[in-house]
Amino acid sequence: MSRPAAASYRLTRFVVLRLLGFVYFFAFLSAALQIVPLIGADGLLPARSWLARVTAQLGSSGAGFLRVPSLFWIDASDGTLLLAAWVGAGLSLVVLCGYANALVMAALWALYFSFVSVGQDWYGYGWEIQLLETGAVAVFLCPLLDGRPFPRRPPPFAAILLLRWLAFRIYLGAGLIKIRGDACWRDLTCLVHHYETQPIPNPVSRFYHFMPLWFHQGGVLYNHLCELVCPWFVFGPRLLRLTAGSLMVVFQCILITSGNLSFLNYLTIVPCLAAFDDAFLRRLLPRCVTRRADAAAAAHATAVDAATGPAAGRVHEGIAWAYAALVAILSLGPVGNLLSSRQIMNTSFDRLHLVNTYGAFGSVGEERREIVFEGTGDAAVTAATVWQEYDFWCKPGTPTRRPCLIAPFQPRLDWQIWFAAMSSPERYPWTLHLVAKLLRNDPGTLSLLSTNPFPDRPPRFIRAAFYRYRFAPPGEPDGAWWRRTYLGEWLPPLSDDDARLRRFLEAYGWQGTGALRPGAARP
């Protein structure tokens, strides 16, 4: 006989896979629209060059593949990168539409793993390995071949437990890194600054920023409730598990409204859904969906009663439990990290990223500093030089431009410039490559920007100015969203014949990528 609804997870599998397909789609769409100018043959950090350095360091491409597995060891051309991204996006839509089996989910995992392996700075975020770990578990949720929205066999309970274990580590890791990190999480003041200083605010961020102190303090308390208390109940009695899961999902929905955190919040909801069973979800889902789940359960019960097909189900369960045992072994490192006073966040403990440690915003800046790239057509830089700035897809730039609403899509260059603003050009050498490409009006690089102030001919000089940004109060007469103060130069003015820039590019092997060609005539 089939399990009671309270112990059944057919609907759980259905919503988990649909949301995961949604996340995968935006992850691959982000790659399809940005991967060539980022890591293509003429990209800011070419994957081919990086793979060649790995090969040189390890002695062979075979050793390189074992260290950083990726399909792009076979071919990292622009066409292959784009093909992989669009194939991934297409398969993601198939899953989103309700059709998934273990083969499809394994293909999505392998494709995305390949991008993460060669993505360098652009794929160094915690949600990349979180997507890979989630995607690996999802392989075992599905039958090998049956891709129907409601296959006859129920999901292995081991896979449900693995999702709960993932939710536990994500939330508890994030909570502990905060409590151990910035004092503002302990005195309940972090959100006073967070909405303004987060990587890419959205239009609602300013509304949150100007809320009273009690609002921010309450937000921190709710954060601690969800990250430090709720995780302990995902394995608890049903009522406590449902309550904890609901609080955690609502928490992520609030975060979605507060900023552009890529697909992180949507992805984090996925393992939380494993706290819900069919009896709970049937109250929320349309009847046409629940009827199909009931029909699949009835067909499975009939097959088992007739002894015509239970063996495959037992094999599936056994494989899932074997994978759970592997995860248990691989969890020793992440658990040790959670217990350590030197806890680190967003780190892999195995080359396949099967079990990782997570965390976010262990510290919160009190001041937003932005790098603004500016160009001029003047033949020489003087005190009278007029600089025109480049606006990126979403990061703050022109003060009157409204913050964008772009998540779950991630503008990866915008994100990396937010990190670069907290450091120096030496730590982010690709910023010099970016300058060189802007000096050539490189089409690929310009596709990552929203404006080009020099559409007819390239600028003579590019500099990176440093500004302090503060939210302008709502209702300002000039309609500004930001107030900014000039702090100085992050990079001095550079021209395409600057010997320092040429030497720098040559040192990194970028002189032949089309960004800067010695002796090339200015258009």
Describe the structure.
The chain is an alpha+beta fold and 523 residues long. The chain has 2 domains: 5-357, no CATH class; 368-507, no CATH class. It has helices spanning 10-39, 47-58, 61-67, 78-96, 102-118, 126-141, 157-180, 191-197, 203-209, 213-229, 238-258, 264-272, 278-281, 287-305, 310-330, 332-339, 412-420, 430-438, 443-446, 499-507, and strands spanning 347-348, 356-357, 368-376, 388-389, 461-471, 482-494. The radius of gyration is 25 Å and the shape is globular.
Task: Briefly characterize the structure.
With 523 residues, this protein is of the alpha+beta class. Helix content is 51%, strand content 7%. The longest helix is centred in the first third of the chain and has 30 residues, at 10-39.
Measured between the Cα atoms of the first and last residue, the distance is 76 Å
How many runs of DSSP E, i.e. beta strands? Answer: 6
Question: Biggest β-sheet, characterized?
Answer: 4 strands, antiparallel
The helix fraction, in percent, is 40-55%
Structural class: alpha+beta
| Percent strand | 5-15%
Radius of gyration over alpha carbons? 25 Å
| Number of continuous helical runs | 20
What's the rounded overall pLDDT mean?
A: 93
Biggest sheet strand line-up: 4-3-5-6
- H/E element order: HHHHHHHHHHHHHHHHEEEEHHHEEH
The unreliable regions are 1-5, 512-523
Shape assignment: globular
Total tally of structural domains: 2
